[in-house]
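Quick illustration for those who missed Monday's session on complexes.
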Amino acid sequence: MSITNRAFGQVDLLEELAPDVERLYNRHLEAPREWFPHEAVDWGTGQNFADKPWSAEDYPLAAGVRSAIYVNLLTEDNLPYYTNTLLSHSRAGHPLLDWNHQWTMEENRHAMVMRDWVHISRCIDPVLLEEGRRVQMKTGEVPRPETLADLITYVAFQERATQVAHRNTATKLPKDDTMGRRILGLIAGDETKHYLFYRDLAKAAFAIDPSAMMIAATKQAVNFAMPGTGIPSFTRHAVRIAREGIYGLGQFMGDVLEPVTGWWDLEHLAGLSAEAEHAREELVKMKVTLTEQVERLAQRLNPVRPALA
Ligand SMILES: [Fe+2]
Ligand SMILES: [Fe+2]
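Prediction with fe (ii) ion bound:
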């Protein structure tokens, strides 16, 4: 990459990132967390639905936790469309293509093992789940980040958000559902590794093309929504999930936006274009607004009463 090219904003980010993709992909492979879905499932506890039709009493659970399991599982089901998006930003012979395949292979088991647990534990109505899957997959609605910079920043936020959602859902399950807790923990572990890959790939991309990445980061942060907008009654589920403290504005701000953008050290990015400087300011303003919203929300849910003297 010549200085002239950079000055004219003609950075081929995909080409420039190849060594970093290779480095981070190797790091991913060198930290194996091998697990087998069949070992995590307690098959003996299942019952045929023909013998015993599903009922909500089979597994009493708060509505927000049920919504979280439903949305998280359907999101994992939508994998073919996410893979499709990732592949559209890669090309033959590039290490990013190998990473995309590895990522798809690891993601593919999430829906499988979750569904085994859901059906055996009966924590979700199987008919509702299957109908939701059909609607969602026929719609094929997933975010389609425009550029590679958009994609990398979006996926970094998204993998982190997914990790948080699975982890927090696990903590809300009854203590005696060790199968569910273990399975969601295993999935969250995979998401952590995926997050680390994209977080650090983005960090490398910031060094190559800081302006394009800064603009992309702001755009993706401002527009960020949990995947799942194609799921029937998504908004209703999202509200319940937030109320349950599993994933909402507070988690997005405190567990996603702050740690991820903090890692990228956006305050100290140098050599930004005027547009990118503007994007950086916009992100700071957005964080202030969001923090105020989160505080107001917390106040409403849990008002602090002045202590009696
Ligand atoms: Fe996943
Ligand atoms: Fe993931």
